Amino acid sequence: MATGSSHHRARLRTRAIPLLVVVMLAVLVLTALLRASRHDFVPPARASVGGGANHTIAQHKILLDPDFTPRLPRQSALSLSLSQRNLLPPRNAARFSRLPQGHLKIVLYVHNRPHYLRLVVDSLSRVEGIGEALLIVSHDGYFPEMDKIVRGIAFCQVKQIFAPYSPHLFPDAFPGVSSGDCQGKAKAAKKQCHGDPDQYGNHRSPRIVSLKHHWWWMMNTVWDGLEETRDFDGHILFIEEDHYIFPNAYRNAQLLVGLKPRKCPQCYAINLAPSDVKAKGEGWESLIAEKMGNIGYAFNRTVWRKIHAKAKQFCNFDEYNWDITMWATVYPSFGSVYSLRGPRRSAAHFGKCGLHQGQGSSNVCVDNGEAAVELDAIDKVPNIKANWPVHIIKKQEGYQAGFKGWGGWGDRRDQELCLSFAYMYHFQDTLSA
């Protein structure tokens, strides 16, 4: 009997040894994977602020290049103080305490055109349903008059964020003008200056590159950095300081977002206006699917993830305009990119000053700040019908794949800073230069 028991225990040991080896190997592999994962990236800044427990698209793995280490400029006192302001909660939350199901978040990105901003804020105050929205105002640098206008908003929840690495905050260092930087078409070797020229031989202009830097920083911050939005998977509506918003814009945007999955499942976004900024719309009894425009556009996190995955293409393309960069490089990589809109515009571009003309104390573009936008009665109420068919415009003029860019974005420092913005909320140790 004892001999049989010893034989049984020996057989058990013989079976257990291979199983133990397999378990140990599995533990070693899992440990290695976890270490590699922690080395490459961390989820969007959740550990430090105790983000929500719901697992949404926001928490899906982000693919990063392990060979790239993000480096951000060393911040000045002003830059650091603005970063702290970015952490403040929205104002007017007590008055507008409930953001209902199906609400849209609105991002207004601004530069330094106070005449324009006053008009936009006034138009937003007249929008039906605006009290249901969270308005995020993203500033390219700090300009006291712009700050004052936004702080006076009382018609909805409002949160201000400031691009802390805006060239306008660095008067004598990159991303502003560094000592020894090449200017214009200067030859670096001959002048003994720093910088990479663009494809046309021109060196960087901080006032120009700020446009693309701000848009890309804003997108990454809104989708992946802010506590108020990083777990939000719905549509976010983006508008600019020279966009006049009609009273029906918010309700029409909600209607389009609701109709898009059924009416145009291939559509990536919705728009409040035609892609041709001068057009008022067709006036048909039909929805329109066309190329994505840059006036009042909204998309969700799924689309953002696709855009974010093209960070290298976006950041390395020699073009200082963010929208032309998207049209010429990012969107074509997706195939046919359509945006759904109504047959009448719900937002309009106005003004004469370009973004780069409204910056800097010695080069401020000023017009009378009047928006010559005539509103008909139909523009003041929701005017989109759920039973309308969809008319698809397949071929349109404009910037497309193959366009080589207008330049202004040839300096490797700008390209690396741009790519750092794409990594800064997903990397454990973002370095300061």
TrEMBL record:
Subcellular location: Golgi apparatus membrane
GO cellular component, one term: Golgi stack
Keyword Hydrolase appears in the UniProt entry: no
Transmembrane segments: 16-34
Binding site for Mn(2+): D242, H349
Domain of life: Eukaryota
UniProt cofactor(s): Mn(2+)
UniProt: substrate binding residues: D140
A GO biological process held by the record: protein N-linked glycosylation
Membrane topology value: Single-pass type II membrane protein
Pathway involvement of the protein, from the record: Protein modification; protein glycosylation
Main location: Golgi
PANTHER family, alphabetized: ALPHA-1,6-MANNOSYL-GLYCOPROTEIN 2-BETA-N-ACETYLGLUCOSAMINYLTRANSFERASE, BETA-1,2-N-ACETYLGLUCOSAMINYLTRANSFERASE II
Protein name: Alpha-1,6-mannosyl-glycoprotein 2-beta-N-acetylglucosaminyltransferase
Organism whose genome encodes this protein: Zizania palustris (Northern wild rice)
